[in-house]
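It is worth pausing here to work through a concrete case rather than discussing structure prediction in the abstract. The textbook approach is simple: state the sequence, then state the predicted structure, then interpret. We follow exactly that order.
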Amino acid sequence: MSQSVDLPRVDDFLQELAAIQQTGSKRIALLGSRHVPITHQVLIEEMSYALVLGRNRLLTSGATGTNAAAIRGAMRADPNLLTVILPQSLSRQPRESREQLEQVMHLVENSENDHLSLAEASAICNQEIVSRCQQLICFAFHDSTTLLTTCKDAEDQRKIVTLFYFD
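Step two, the predicted structure:
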């Protein structure tokens, strides 16, 4: 009797090995849910701070929660290594986010998506962020449809994906 075993492909192993051995800076996207407890936000902020101190370029979006924490950490380390890509124009962002976003040096607005729902604009925005990164770190819940789709898209593009679940 034979059993089928799902083993990762050799090229997946080689890609991961190359990523571990890479000593230079990377373009790392950090995305996640808006609904994050403050204790988790502190951890995310420290992670982004450490990534930027390591001379990595950090990409994120402008939402509250995970993305706001990532922005805070990156801004403390080196604001020049942070790029924030918004799903819509700055004026469409929540008031509590705008003050932080106005301090970001590399801010990309997508005003052409202002007519879309936030969910649709966020999905497009996440695709743009993934296209610009080498690695994606994502914080999500098991029902975070947009974020989980983003992770799947990143894997399909052969990006390194690290997915943390809150639940």
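Step three, interpretation. The two ends are 38 Å apart (CA to CA). The chain has one domain: 25-165.
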